[in-house]
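Predict structure. Chain length: 309.
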Amino acid sequence: MSNYIFRTFPGFLLLLSIAIPAHGQTKLGFDLSNASIPVDAIHSGGPPPDGIPSIDEPKFTPVAKVDYLEPEDTVIAFEKDGIARAYPFRVLIWHEIVNDSVAGQPIAVVYCPLCGTAMVFDRRYGHQTLTFGVSGLLYNSDVLMFDRQTKSLWSQLGMKSVSGKFVDTELEWLPSEQTTWAAWKAKNPEGKVLNLDTGHRRDYRNLPYQGYFTSPRTMFPYEQNRDELEPKTWVAGIRVNGVAKAYPIESMPGNKWIADRLGETDIRLRYSKDNQRFEAQTPQGNPIPVVHAFWFAWQAFYPETEIHQ
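Prediction complete.
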């Protein structure tokens, strides 16, 4: 978020507790008259629209020349047609959205530090390519994006638009890889990495949410449907053909493929503890999208989720 918020983080918590009231059916200038989610459950995160600036012209550094990451740093990576790119959380935490294009495919890389969720979506809708920004609004503690073309709001974990022209339009969730910088670098020596030349002055050496990640507390209201796990237990979330399932990461066997079934779909999955990488595939080896998430966030959006035992 913005610089002043991170420098006064204890005061930031107090600010967060103050919800900005709706004026009619708008919040922060966004028209919510046809919202598909409860308007009173939409909260201001503090910054205004674009107060957390998206990266719209990303620049990249070849793997061999990267000197701004630590081996244990987390990245989310996307690959298409042999082009491999990694987006460090160290940068994403200050921007939350990167509008990019890989091998001709427009994508949005979206990170919500409050939910711990990093996901990649296709930005194409018919003949239109959307560009996303950070609205400054949250639903179930999760970032609400907006597209600059229509100012429709979109839910990251809900994976669809929740207001505006595109309301109820689903996002296409694309397979990506979340892992450590050391692991991705070893696997992709010819890859490229989002660099620090973002057009914004931020302290990318600083990780402002460290206290939040280690605390059992959350910051914003969310719908509590399930209590089998502690709210900030890390899970891997998978959703196939409308069926959602959570896999508590610490209970997963390390480096071993296991078979499972979601609804009518057979899958196989593996968690590599050393690389902090969770993979899911069809039996034919086709990748299935996976998101690392805090349990409170996953159950808020998917109250009927199964839990892997």
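Summary: Helices lie at 3-7, 9-16, 89-95, 181-187, 210-214, 295-301.
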